[in-house]
Automatic annotation (TrEMBL), chains A, B:
<dbReference type="InterPro" id="IPR033656">
    <property type="entry name" value="HisRS_anticodon"/>
</dbReference>
<dbReference type="InterPro" id="IPR041715">
    <property type="entry name" value="HisRS-like_core"/>
</dbReference>
<dbReference type="GO" id="GO:0005524">
    <property type="term" value="F:ATP binding"/>
</dbReference>
<dbReference type="GO" id="GO:0006427">
    <property type="term" value="P:histidyl-tRNA aminoacylation"/>
</dbReference>
<dbReference type="GO" id="GO:0004821">
    <property type="term" value="F:histidine-tRNA ligase activity"/>
</dbReference>
<feature type="binding site">
    <location>
        <position position="121"/>
    </location>
    <ligand>
        <name>L-histidine</name>
    </ligand>
</feature>
<dbReference type="InterPro" id="IPR006195">
    <property type="entry name" value="aa-tRNA-synth_II"/>
</dbReference>
<dbReference type="GO" id="GO:0005737">
    <property type="term" value="C:cytoplasm"/>
</dbReference>
<dbReference type="InterPro" id="IPR015807">
    <property type="entry name" value="His-tRNA-ligase"/>
</dbReference>
<keyword id="KW-0067">ATP-binding</keyword>
<feature type="binding site">
    <location>
        <position position="107"/>
    </location>
    <ligand>
        <name>L-histidine</name>
    </ligand>
</feature>
<feature type="binding site">
    <location>
        <begin position="77"/>
        <end position="79"/>
    </location>
    <ligand>
        <name>L-histidine</name>
    </ligand>
</feature>
<feature type="region of interest" description="Disordered">
    <location>
        <begin position="404"/>
        <end position="431"/>
    </location>
</feature>
<feature type="binding site">
    <location>
        <begin position="269"/>
        <end position="270"/>
    </location>
    <ligand>
        <name>L-histidine</name>
    </ligand>
</feature>
<keyword id="KW-0648">Protein biosynthesis</keyword>
<dbReference type="InterPro" id="IPR004154">
    <property type="entry name" value="Anticodon-bd"/>
</dbReference>
<dbReference type="InterPro" id="IPR036621">
    <property type="entry name" value="Anticodon-bd_dom_sf"/>
</dbReference>
Amino acid sequence: MYDRLKGFRDFYPEEMSARREVTDTVETTAARYGFREIGTPHLERTQMYVDKSGEEIVEELYAFEDKGGRDISLTPELTPTVARMVVAKQQALSKPIKWVSTRPFWRYEQVQQGRFREFYQTNADIFGSTEPEADAEILAFAAEALTDLGLTADDFEFRVSHRDILGGLLRSFDADVDVRDAIRAVDKSEKVEREEYLGLLSDAGLSYDQAAEFADLLDRGDLDEIADFGGDDVASAVENLQNVLAAAEDFGAGDYCEVSLTTARGLDYYTGVVFECFDSTGEVSRATFGGGRYDDLIESFGGQPTPAVGVALGDATLQLLCQRAGVWPEEALSTDYYVLTVGDTRDVASRIARDLRASGNVVETDVAGRSFGAQMSYADSINAESVVIVGERDLENGEVTIKDMESGDQTTAPVDDFPGESDAPTYEDYE
Amino acid sequence: MYDRLKGFRDFYPEEMSARREVTDTVETTAARYGFREIGTPHLERTQMYVDKSGEEIVEELYAFEDKGGRDISLTPELTPTVARMVVAKQQALSKPIKWVSTRPFWRYEQVQQGRFREFYQTNADIFGSTEPEADAEILAFAAEALTDLGLTADDFEFRVSHRDILGGLLRSFDADVDVRDAIRAVDKSEKVEREEYLGLLSDAGLSYDQAAEFADLLDRGDLDEIADFGGDDVASAVENLQNVLAAAEDFGAGDYCEVSLTTARGLDYYTGVVFECFDSTGEVSRATFGGGRYDDLIESFGGQPTPAVGVALGDATLQLLCQRAGVWPEEALSTDYYVLTVGDTRDVASRIARDLRASGNVVETDVAGRSFGAQMSYADSINAESVVIVGERDLENGEVTIKDMESGDQTTAPVDDFPGESDAPTYEDYE
């Protein structure tokens, strides 16, 4: 007997039906916003991640050499791949480009609740607009996907921040700051003690007093104070953040957004607005997913300068959020009809099954040569709403029996008129 | 600039919309037959393939060692994974088990037309029935998936064969035959010259005369003659094949099936009926996909003996078949509404876009701060059916303009009554 790899998951039909319902909801929301589905390779050259995604991801890569001597990796995230695809057809694509996809990714991480080595993400991105409406549309799509799943403003909030506010503030100190390291420190600030956080900021080049002042500024989160403190660049980033929030308000996402400058996002390539969705259902508020603006990535891939903003919803944390809020779909099979054969009635039973399927019904019939009782028990196990019994004796009278599985009521119907005109005949129709 | 790996594909939105339509059709057909979707890992232990899938697949594996020292492989096919999943929950699963999934697989192969290193398959399998109805349901599902795509009996045929007929015939010769090698030779028989084919059979242990007699028997394909020649085991396999074809006839797939004993399927684990779908649209008839029975695999994975039969439809050959038959969906975007803003009208335009989306429409609006002309040109590029123009001056009169993009006709509508009661208001509604 073989075992499954650690951090990988098998999804059996009941659980899968709930997952499918959630994915379909998110993808339908994206489609209504005009995000267009793309299909992307699951392997890319390792160098793409070494160059672009920052140390953290590279350490977690499933990387190896293929039989042709290429250094390749299982994709740990989508953004570098879509950047490559935008560059490859830059001239032909009309902008703004709005793309969406749902697929697996892989990172060799410590497995824990809500974190697996194989996970699924729905990524939605907009390329070709620096305008605040693009950031706001990403926020609005993400909020609407969640509300379409049944979540409310009581269940989640988007904590919105801005990389240029953080970077501008850091640069405004009289110190030789490694902005990248300092932003990583901010990203960790909610997960570590204050002293450790200040230590990380000091490691990045701030003095202890500067680190404390910076941390306090972010904690207070007073945008006017921050604009005054940081100078023109920071003031302009503050204005951009405010414009994004105003557009998000117009787009219907206002109720879900709040400014939180201690939100930073771990990945190096973010440039402007960044945000994280926080789960407010539990005692411990935690990040469910996030996104943001990455205006420099396409150019760094050799393309024309192309602004970009996007979001990635991960399956595992989204499932936890939905489950805690009580909106995770029921994990159960559903079946419209089971067509039960008794004796040598396969030809008639098959005709009925085919007619019912032609109207779009989910229909099973016997493929295992089983007894009446075994078939009835199987019909029950797949939650069949109705069972159509096609028996030799009934057929001699030109009849079949239709049984409502919830009530147990049954009646006969003329076989020549079954399923008849109705797309979904029930016990009641023939009672 | 980074390049895509050889044998891997990027799918941009137009092509992806056609692919999605095809996948949805196949999955919907499977759902109507009561196949239940599962989700499966994309990596497994390499040993599973070394033990089970035969040399050909192992040579093509994307295999490597993970950071934990495990020998792992990208999944080259689904069957070993579903066998593992059946074994893991054998007691809890009610039988027959009917599973379906669509996902990528990887093999390091020579890239050619219809063959890529990353490819997609829809796999459908039934576990727990030795009855011919199970084989027939797989044939019927596959045939109906193709006819639901618009294909007809002129476009494809299923060539149906039986491993126990081939194996029984081979064992009936007075020779020390390696049945596995001989069946591989049969699998190659259509692709190589007759002399090479007979040579491969001789390598497998038949004398040259026996090889010629065996090849002639298969070519003639007279089931009565073969049953007489091969003895009881072969006669019983012939009966099973005939029973499967009779059930397939009842299930509506009779028109698509014909006996073809030179069809063998390459994989080692097949046991009973095997079949291949042949594309009859072109001058060169070729295999599009195939399937068959594999009754021993679950037991060899450490499970209870569990019969199984399945089919796998690959994306690339299916696309070629559909394209040659002229039923490949149009590769184009579709959009219901573009809501165009002129001046400072974002709040009203957003409200209209949200109302239209709430009725299920695909709606885009400006996220890039662009001019009237640029927005109209973008609306055209996404094939918007209608454009709703929300202009400052119109709004002063309490109006918006709705433009039919095909005819170019436009008229005004009262903004307070737009979109009004209709889920999909058109130019005609306000004319």
